[in-house]
Amino acid sequence: MQRLASLFFIGSSIFLMSFTAPTVVKEGNKPTKTEIAKPSVFQVNVTESKVNWTGRKVTGHHEGTINISDGKLELDNNVLKSGNFSIDTRSILVTDLKDAGSNAKLLGHLKSEDFFSVEKFPAANFVTTNITNKGNGSYDITGNLTIKGITNPISFPATVTIEGSKLTAKAAIKVDRTKYNIKYGSKSFFEGIGDKAIYDDFDLDVVLVATVK
């Protein structure tokens, strides 16, 4: 009977120790906390960013500038994932014509219904839909470009460089204006206009300068 009591006491002690004894975790088995990097959002600086445009015709070409009004670029681990920017069409300027009268005449025409109808459509917008990373800061960009309220898909190459908290994105975009109901002087729609023809494509050289929000 005494032996049975002793066995009962030892068993009870072991049972209690299984609940009260501290759990020893080996140093090498400690769980580690995984830090999940958040995407970086860069806000476009509209003062430092710029767009140069070039329009060509049979007899020559014209050049100018237009202002960026807003934009954001999102990166994950320094790789571009998405982006958008807006252009203030009312800010368009002609830079190649030095004669004030000729400059004002062309500028007024560009702002009119024949071209960008800037009072009715004061903004043009671009939003990415697909980005292919080619490495070393080079990308193939596809997205939706909206001009005069008309949206079409467009693709172009771009480069992105990052220095500290500053990002610079550059892109050369070729736009077919006739897809946005800008048909003035187009041989595609008006026959027999000869050397008065204006080519359908115009170029936008875009430089976006942005900093982390």
UniProtKB/TrEMBL annotation:
<dbReference type="InterPro" id="IPR036761">
    <property type="entry name" value="TTHA0802/YceI-like_sf"/>
</dbReference>
<feature type="signal peptide">
    <location>
        <begin position="1"/>
        <end position="20"/>
    </location>
</feature>
<dbReference type="InterPro" id="IPR007372">
    <property type="entry name" value="Lipid/polyisoprenoid-bd_YceI"/>
</dbReference>
<keyword id="KW-0732">Signal</keyword>
<feature type="domain" description="Lipid/polyisoprenoid-binding YceI-like">
    <location>
        <begin position="41"/>
        <end position="211"/>
    </location>
</feature>
<protein>
    <submittedName>
        <fullName>YceI family protein</fullName>
    </submittedName>
</protein>
<dbReference type="Pfam" id="PF04264">
    <property type="entry name" value="YceI"/>
</dbReference>
